[in-house]
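Task 17 of the worksheet. Students: predict the tertiary structure of the chain below and write it out as structure tokens. Keep your answer in the requested format; marks are given for formatting as well as content.
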Amino acid sequence: MISRDSKIDWLESPRIVTTALSILPGLLAIASTLIFMSGELSDEQLGQVLLLLAGSISIGVFITWIVAGARLQPLVQSRSHRDQVLRAFEVFTQRLEAGDLRAKVELPAQLMSERSTFGTLAGAFNRLMPRLDSTIADISSIANNVSAKVDGILAATNEQIGTATEQDTSVMETSSTVQEVRATVTETAERAAAVADMAQTSVNVSKAGQQAVSDAIDGMNLIRRRVESIADNILVLSEHTQQIGEIIATVSALADQSKLLALNASVEAARAGEEGKGFAVVAMEVRNLAEQSREATNQVRDILSEIQQATNSAVMVTEEGTKGVDAGVELVNRAGESIRDLASTIEEAAYAAVQIAASTRQQTVGVDQLSMAMQNIRQATAHATTSTMTVERSARELMSMSRSLNNLLDRYRVHRDEAE
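Model answer:
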């Protein structure tokens, strides 16, 4: 059994306890940081981190238990062995406090070879330390890789933010241009609709013009028929006038003969003397009647001559009127053809105007859809920028943690440092 004095000597070595406990915060900080960064670690690396955490706790617990063990059993047989054990563990904990993970518990060969508690514990620590050493070295390499990756992420996010800003500016300019195009298309649509309305009005007017031309042609044809009818009547009248002239000529000839007969009768009455006086009076009357008949026939002949001249003039006028009507009909027909051609052109223009109006309305719908798409793109760009900025903040936080981890790891010396 260990004496009371030896027990007090053990408990009067607080440096070992303090040193052993002082390494725990650093190891725990490293372990907690790596656990927080576990998304960057593989399952094997995360297991090593947990092993580091367990090992650090084990070191502190075992050393504290050894030094402060009020229930210690007789682990060593002599005071010299006890001092060697204390010295070995004190050196071991001092090197750990200094961050030297290459430290080993160097006990005398006798204690290491014996199956004593201290030998077993020292062997366990000596086997644990290379694994801790390798784990810390791997963690340092991972931290450096994380820093390099974070630098790349930050560069990419900065470039992406710049690109998103330029894209947002381009989208704003494009949206402004789209709005201008929409205003132009809307104005074009309104003007096209107005042109279509005017074209439709022109079509209606042209149809009315075609109807007017048709009515004019019908009227001209009616006038032509009436003029031709008048010309026919005048020709009939001329023929009747000629017949009357012939009758008048006959009457005039009869009057001349009657006058001659009356003259002969007067001569015979004069020869007869008293007996022929009554016959002479009758002959005188017949002569007077014949003279009056001749004068009347002369007057009728003059009138008929005037009628004949008027009839001839009327016939000529009706012929000229007929020719004028024919020319008018031809002109009206030409005008009708021109109006029909114009109406056809106007109808084609009206149809084209309607098509233009419909196309501009479709363009307006397309421009509205394009404007909506540009707004969606701008919103998506804003969301992407926000997400990128969030990634950037996370990357900066990760960079800060990586630097903190490197600062913590810089406290430890590993075998890899010697190789470098």
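Marker's comment: The mean pLDDT is 72. Residues 210 and 340 are 7 Å apart (CA to CA).
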